[in-house]
# Entry
Amino acid sequence: MAIIELVGVHYTYEDGTTALRGVDLKVERKEKLALIGPNGSGKTTLLLHFNGILKPTHGRVLLEGREIKYSRRELKELRRTVGVVFQDPDTQLFAATVYQDVSFGPLNLDLPEDEVRKRVEEALRLTGALPFQDRSPQYLSYGQKKRVAIAGILAMEPQVVVCDEPTAWLDRDGCQQVMELLDRAAAAGVTVVISTHDVDLAYAWADRVVVMKDGTVIAQGDPVEIFMQDDLLRQAGLHRPWVLDMWLTLRKKGLVDRSATVPRTGEELKACLES
Ligand SMILES: Nc1ncnc2c1ncn2[C@@H]1O[C@H](COP(=O)(O)OP(=O)(O)OP(=O)(O)O)[C@@H](O)[C@H]1O
Ligand SMILES: [Mg+2]
# Structure
C-alpha cells in the first residue's frame, strides 16, 4: 500500500490562484521520488499537502490508506510520519542556536530527554552541523542553514522526508553532500521525495519521476522512460539529461552497445565507452 496517496487534489490559494487541478499521486514506501516541472507548475503546493501544511480545496490525502480528516491528533501523526524541508531554510529556522532548532521537533514529539539528546546529536553529526551547533542559525551560510533544516527533520525520524529543491543555490560540493545525506536516509529505509529543476539530478537519482505542468501530473514513471520522450520534454519545457542525450547520440552513431543498460550517470556513460 502507498505510504501517501493523493486523490483528485485541487488547491486554490486565498487570492483565487488555482495551483493544483486534480492531482492523483501515490508515493510508495521506500522509493526515491523526484518531482519535476516548470516554475509555477505546483510542485511546492503539492509537497505542502504531504504533511498537512495545506489542506486540499477538493480531494483527499491518505496516509497508509487512511484518509486524513485534519484533526489535531491526525495532523500530529501525519507530521510525525512525514517531514518537509522547505526550499528556503530561513522559513524553517527560528531558534537562538542550531542545537535548539534541531531539538524543537523531537521535543514536540514528547520523547524522553535522553532520546531527544541522542537524536539531535545524531542528526547534527550526520549533516555535518556539529561544528556550528552553538551558533545562531541566522548568521550561517546558506548551505549551512540547509543542513540544519535537514537535521531538524531527520531528528524527528520520519518515515518520509520531503525536500523542496534540496540543491537550489548550493555549490557543487554542497549539492553532493545534501544528496548523499538524503541517500543515506533512503538506504536506512526512509522514503525520500524531492522537487527539483535539475533534470540531471532527477535522472541520476530517482527511482521514479513525476512531471508536473499547470497544476496537474502530466507523466510519471521510470527516469529513462520519462526522459526518452521528446514530446513530453517539449511540453513540460524540460531538457533531456546530458548523460542520456550523449548516450543517444553515441548510439545513433553505433558507438555504444544498443542492448546495454542505459547509463544514468557520467561514470556509467564512461563505462559504456570503455567496454
Ligand atoms: N501563497 C500563495 N498565494 C497565492 N498564490 C500562490 C501562493 N504560492 C504559490 N502560488 C501560486 O500557485 C502556483 C503554483 O506555485 P508553486 O509554488 O506550487 O509552483 P512550483 O512548481 O513550486 O514553482 P517553482 O518551480 O517556482 O518553485 C503558481 O501560480 C503560484 O503563483
Ligand atoms: Mg517551488
